[in-house]
Amino acid sequence: MNGGAMPARTDAELLSALRASLRAGRVELRLDARRLDSQDSPVSVQAESTRWLYALVVASGAAWSWGGHAAGLAAGAASVACWYLWVRPDVARRIRRRVEDVALDDAATWRRLWRHGGVALRIAGAAACVAPAGNWMQFVRDLDMAAGEGRE
User: Fold this and answer.
1) CA distance 102 to 133
2) Rounded distance, CA 53 to CA 50, Å?
3) Which tens digit of pLDDT belongs to each residue from 102-131?
4) Structural domain boundaries of the chain?
5) Are strands 28-31 and 129-130 parallel, antiparallel or unpaired?
6) DSSP codes joined into one string, the chain
7) Minimal CA–CA distance to 114: which of 86, 128, 133?
């Protein structure tokens, strides 16, 4: 059948090896937070950004209503600054945490995330393996072979 070669590792085993390489610092995980915050992303929680958007719009509207044009414009400018300086980075941190805590521990979620895109794996000095076009399983196999841990 396979000529005495060791059996191919499952996606769960390869994901475990990837997780170990990430934690050891041999691989860098890059995320595109904008793409991963889309509605169909397996690591996105839309309420994280929309609740802030609604609150900022309401606050700007209230300032406009109670303080006039100048107050409304100032509140609007402050809302835009808050959005880009605090809300978006916070959402990106939460997405990264979900990728690291959830997707890297569950092969089915990781496969959905990889098919969605917005993820790249990189070794220093080497080309990145970018989702969804790249083959993350072959990336891990090659990484293990380079480290002398090849089992396939």
Assistant:
1) 22
2) 5
3) 999 999 999 999 999 999 999 977 788 999
4) 9-39+105-152, 44-101
5) unpaired
6) --TTPPPPPPHHHHHHHHHHHHHHTSSEEEE-HHHHTSTT-TT--THHHHHHHHHHHHHHHHHHHHHHHHHHHHHHHHHHHHIIIIIHHHHHHHHHHHHHHTGGG-HHHHHHHHHH--EEEE-TTS--EETTTS-HHHHHHHHHHHTT----
7) 133
